[in-house]
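Example record for the data management plan.
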Amino acid sequence: MDIQAEMKKIGQQAKAASAELAFASGDVKQKALENAADAVWKNRADIIAANALDMEYGREKGLSPAMLDRLMLDQDRIQGIVDGLRAVAAQDDPIGAVLADWDRPTGLNIQRVRTPLGVIGVIYESRPNVTADAGALCLKAGNAVILRGGSESFHSSGAIHACLVHGLTSVGLPAHAVQLVPTRDRAAVGEMLTMVDYIDVIVPRGGKGLVGRVQADARVPVFAHLEGICHIYVDADADVEKTRAVVLNAKTRRTGICGSAECLLIDRAFYQTHGAPFIQDLLNAGVEVRGDTTLQAIDGVIPATADDFGHEYLDMIIAAKIVDGLGDAITHLRQYSSNHTDCIMTENDATAAAFFQKVDSAILMRNASTQFADGGEFGMGAEIGIATGKMHARGPVGAEQLTSFKYLVTGDGTTRA
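Corresponding structural encoding:
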């Protein structure tokens, strides 16, 4: 395959499709997504068979259990994909929404109206459900999308993509509105990063290596989704039982997702009063706890090294240390957090307010599992990723975040003095 020629063709097709999508009605886009959801469920056996090929490929590559879990599809997860497609379909159409409306003394009326971005390139690893999520959200926002899934999910993504194309063509929308790069060759990624004539923004979703490469090499604007180095700070006024439930869920529910907790910060005053029963819970669940000198007194905790802090494990491993109050915790976060999601466990409203004010992560939580860092759980139906940058989109990137705006100015023969 001539990668450069193939990617140029895909870009041209996406650009043409985006011009049609920009004027598609909300009802038509909704029906396309509903039909795509029906197709995913109807073809679930074929999708699971395709996923079996990817799972075999992943095992041969030596993927960790957590990474294989990210890759695996079963009937329940396919039901989740269907539910996600239907949830996005049911959302209000963001395009054409009037964001602001005002009159000027000159007699002009000005409206700021939501519009599509154009063509979005999504580069992602492992999780085949991203094919459906990204395709659905881009379509809902009137954008064409070029999807470049991970080599591990090649077959699964292809089967899901076929269902999305069915949804598009069933209502007369262009099939090229959602395209999947048809090769595992990494050269295709390099081409996408320089396709300034065809792609308006790149959304990378994956590990530090992928996102770092995209940020370093892209000539196209990027919505960065960097590492999910999520922290939980256990304040002196934390409720013990709430903390035990949240910590265990945040680490062990699914270790391979970006919302999995990777580091515990425990206030010394809490530890002196209550100990750290949640660490024993983690150990009992099979989590490897790497702790500082104080926490190594707990049987089963192994010594942490400097590299353990600021590390995204995506596995049954967590780092833990004692801190001296909120200020010390914030100092740690400013050094090690990836500004993805950080949580405070406390019953003290003033401490929680200070944490929310002083910590600059895209998502901040109080007394809730970091596993909720997910667009579906935020009511967005799905998300392309969690943007950790500060330009344009931040936090869960849903349909609204995949739009821009334009100004509509109306006069009545109005001239400027």
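Summary line stored alongside the record: The longest helix spans residues 3-21.
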